[in-house]
Specification:
Length: 331
């Protein structure tokens, strides 16, 4: 399916498609989503088929505004009110206890539901016109890199999607921060553009941070992003520190490998024979914005291996390092 520029007529058509139980990919500020009517179990099942995603992995329901939370959540705790008031529309998904009528297909059989109001004019117009919730995972094949351009969705899903709304490049570039407010204590399930510090600042309490190590059994995985390899290029990808970069490149050259490099800041000297090199922005938000498109770019070049130079391991870079850890292994 070819992307269509998201003007009013296209959005009206997209709303019709959603009402008919069809799949519509649409832009958000984080990544493109693969949307279906969240109240239609049959439509939601089509998302899993299109992505090749296991059916027990829950989806985020996208809603037009804070007032719509009540249609999906059984109760809205104070913490949810505070975070939503502060960060919505924005790249934050909240996990809350679900209302009984929310289809189990959406929630992976759990009694909680993920909700978010995206901060993108096309997504908001679509949701307002549709007037209900749109379940939407990232519009990529399961475990692959999330799309940040409409063309990526076409490359990933082809005709498995009925319509692709083109709203340009996603500004944030990595998936939303996810905070679970369904238990006794707030828990950070996935780091994102909105940082742990920002959330703790609003809530005035500490978040529990879930560790990958806790989620080793596939059957226990509730957050697909917690799987060891996720958001990954098809080409073998490794990450390494600045200190090891030159040695690793030399080593790979000796083996005759075609290398792609995603460089943070190391000066490699004469780059003329090094092959495919992408120099990344030095600032974290700018880096995040182009991370997935850069990985895709290298992935398309028929290389033997992609080497990623590790950016700083600080809190500001947490979401990026989380995604890089899942896209690469250590060399
Ligand atoms: O930025 C985003 O969140 C993008 C855009 C399209 O909004 N969506 C996205 O969806 O990243 P997806 O499906 O790729 O990731 C959603 C994550 C999954 O890791 C899922 O397990 C988690 O949200 N999730 C959804 N509902 C949940 C629930 N009830 N309990 C725990 N985790 C949940
Ligand atoms: Mg995803």
């Amino acid at each position: 399916m070819k992307p269509i520029f998201a003007n009013d007529a296209a959005i009206d058509q997209a709303v019709d498609f959603l009402r008919q139980g069809r799949l519509v990919a649409f832009p958000t500020e984080t990544v493109y989503g693969l949307g279906a009517d969240a109240s239609n179990p049959k439509a939601v099942r089509r998302i899993f088929l299109a992505k090749g995603r296991p059916i027990d992995h829950p989806l985020i329901v996208h809603i037009p505004n804070l007032a719509s939370v009540d249609a999906w959540a059984l109760s809205v705790p104070e913490a949810a009110q505070q975070l939503a008031a502060h960060f919505w529309p924005g790249p934050l998904a909240l996990i809350l206890k679900k209302r009984p009528e929310v289809p189990l297909e959406v929630t992976g059989g759990q009694d909680t539901v993920g909700l978010r109001v995206p901060d993108h004019p096309v997504a908001l117009r679509l949701l307002q016109a549709f007037g209900s919730g749109v379940a939407a995972p990232s519009a990529n094949r399961f475990c692959r890199i999330s799309p940040t351009l409409a063309i990526h969705v076409q490359e990933e899903l082809g005709d498995a999607v009925d319509m692709i709304l083109d709203g340009g490049a996603c500004q944030v570039g990595v998936e939303s921060t996810i905070v679970d407010l369904s238990g006794a204590q707030p828990k950070l399930l996935r780091p994102g553009h909105i940082t742990r510090n920002q959330i703790e600042g609003i809530l005035q309490r500490e978040l529990i941070v879930s560790h990958q190590e806790e989620q080793t059994e596939l059957s226990q995985i509730r957050v697909p992003g917690m799987m060891a390899i996720h958001y990954a290029p098809v080409t073998r990808a490794v990450r390494c520190s600045e200190a090891n970069l030159s040695t690793i490149i030399a080593d790979l050259f000796k083996q005759g490998k075609k290398i792609g490099l995603l460089i943070y800041h190391t000066d490699l000297g004469d780059e003329s024979n090094l092959g495919a090199i992408i120099r990344m922005p030095l600032q974290a938000n700018a880096y995040a914005q182009v991370l997935y498109s850069s990985l895709r770019e290298l992935d398309s070049q028929h290389l033997d291996i992609i080497v990623v130079e590790q950016p700083p391991l600080t809190e500001t870079w947490r979401a990026i390092n989380d995604r890089l850890c899942k896209a690469t292994s250590t060399y």
